[in-house]
Design a protein that fits this description.
This protein has 7 helices and 12 strands. By secondary structure, it is α+β, with helices and mostly antiparallel strands. It has 2 domains: 113 residues; 140 residues, Protein Transport Mog1p, Chain A (3-Layer(aba) Sandwich), CATH 3.40.1000.10. The chain has a 7-stranded antiparallel sheet with strand order 3-4-5-11-10-9-8. A 3-stranded antiparallel sheet has the order 1-2-12. It has a two-stranded antiparallel sheet with strand order 6-7.
């Protein structure tokens, strides 16, 4: 049966409206995915400008998709749909831009605070292990031990912090473990530990995992264990033990922010 002109016009508008909504939702998802990727890989500035560049064409594209083959008079005669569309997209663009700006400002402030707090720290570099970091004077001097499976670094005045780079060897099972197995097998790595939290962590653009756990006889102490795969075989490890009341966690976080991989 042949459609009347009125039915055909209504069907065309319905299809265009659906396409408009799909494109709008896709754009919102694009903005937020780009933003979180920016945080993860530390390119928020690039994400910010891409969002702005994409936002303006998106407004024009949405309007053109919704109102193709119509005159200006027809656009504004349909109960202000064009104006509503533009307002919605502008609001989305403004909100996404505001979120990104806030993220940039927060990270910039955090970086400035960290830089000021570590400005007078000493710098340690071990080219063989491929590690560089800054450390406070009160931790004492770092000393290095060469092991059969890698390099171990500790501090003579702070036994609560330890670093290691090399193949991870599990003493209990007498075998090496790859990063993926470590990440998904906390109880295998720390059989007497009580896991409190696990999160992904990024150090100098390398992604790894951070475990926070307590031991059976730690008397209220918390432990942090960080594992970062530096290549196919070697893993960078950091261990830290502390009490919430001793105020050392801030220094440790600042220390972690200075770690660089040199190879």
């Amino acid at each position: 049966m042949e459609e009347s002109p009125g039915q055909n016009k209504f069907s065309t508008q319905t299809i265009n409206l659906r396409q408009m909504l799909i494109l709008a939702v896709s754009y919102v998802l694009f903005v937020f995915v780009l933003y979180f990727l920016g945080i993860l890989f530390k390119f928020e500035e690039v994400a910010f400008y891409i969002t702005l560049v994409v936002g303006i064409p998106a407004i024009c594209l949405l309007a053109a998709l919704r109102y193709s083959h119509k005159t200006v008079q027809e656009l504004f005669s349909e109960k202000g749909l064009l104006l509503i569309l533009i307002i919605i997209v502008v609001i989305i663009e403004a909100l996404s831009t505001l979120i990104i700006i806030n993220g940039l400002q927060a990270r910039q402030t955090q970086t400035q605070n960290t830089n000021s707090e570590t400005a007078d720290w000493k710098t340690y570099t071990n080219n063989d292990a491929g590690i560089s970091f800054k450390y406070p004077e009160e931790w004492g001097e770092p000393w290095t031990a060469l092991l059969g499976t890698g390099t171990e670094i500790s501090f003579d005045k702070n036994s609560n912090v330890g670093l290691r780079e090399g193949i991870y060897y599990n003493q209990i099972f007498a075998r090496t473990m790859a990063f993926d197995e470590i990440k998904n097998s906390f109880q295998t790595v720390f059989p007497v530990g009580n896991l409190e939290s696990t999160k992904d962590i990024t150090i100098d653009k390398k992604q790894g995992v951070e475990f926070i756990y307590s031991g059976s006889n730690d008397s209220g102490r918390a432990n942090i264990a960080i594992f970062i795969p530096v290549d196919n075989a070697n893993i960078f490890q950091v261990s830290f033990s502390y009490k919430e009341s001793d105020g050392t966690i801030d220094a440790f976080n600042n220390f972690i922010s200075t770690v660089k991989f040199t190879k």
